[in-house]
Design goal:
A hairpin with a 2-residue loop joins strand 1 and strand 2 (57-62). Helix 1 (2-22) packs parallel to helix 4 (116-173). This protein has helices spanning 2-22, 32-42, 69-78, 116-173; strands at residues 50-54, 57-62, 82-83, 87-93, 100-107. Helix content is 57%, strand content 16%. It has a 5-stranded antiparallel beta sheet, with helices on both faces.
Length: 174
């Protein structure tokens, strides 16, 4: 009984650390794919391999995954998770959104029972990664918008200078 209880605690702590590492970092630099790869490598007992696909393209992997491009394409097309005895392929969908950003393929450990807790861990990790990807995209879009606003402000300042110079010259001529 005591060993089983300790095993559950160890699993929960290890999985929580993985999910926590996937969360977006507010105010700091974040690299969703790099953070995910590091987190999955650190949790090889639960995730013996992984493959991250964004837009149908493999962008990162850990362990020794097989070629899961066909599985990823199927999940992208259907929007539904796909499970086998050795892997789980889940869509990267931000909570509350139907938009699929990609697919994550997780290896299922042969040493562990694939129960509801294990499945929930994979679901949560996929949702956190999707949120982190969305957070990064939003930050990139904000940066581009800020650059565009800065460019327009500079154009307006230059236009104001030209207008002032023009009216100064006109008033001196009369």
């Amino acid at each position: 009984q005591y060993i089983w209880e300790m095993t559950k605690i160890v699993l929960a702590e290890r999985r929580l650390a993985t999910v926590r590492a996937l969360a977006p970092r507010v105010g700091g630099t974040s690299n969703a794919i790099g953070d995910a790869k590091t987190a999955f490598e650190a949790n090889a007992p639960d995730i013996p391999f992984s493959a991250i696909f964004v837009g149908g393209e493999l962008v990162a992997s850990t362990g020794s995954p097989s070629d899961f491009s066909e599985v990823a394409a199927g999940v992208l097309a259907s929007g539904e998770a796909h499970y086998t005895e050795t892997m789980a392929a889940l869509p990267l969908r931000r909570a509350g959104s139907d938009e699929i950003r990609g697919v994550i393929v997780f290896g299922i450990s042969a040493q562990l029972s694939f129960d509801d807790t294990y499945r929930t861990f994979f679901d949560t990790a996929a949702r956190e990664l999707a949120s982190n990807l969305a957070f990064e995209q939003e930050n990139r879009e904000k940066e581009l918008l800020n650059q565009e606003l800065q460019r327009r402000a500079e154009m307006l300042t230059e236009l104001d200078r030209a207008k002032t110079a023009f009216f100064s010259n006109v008033s001196h001529e009369f």
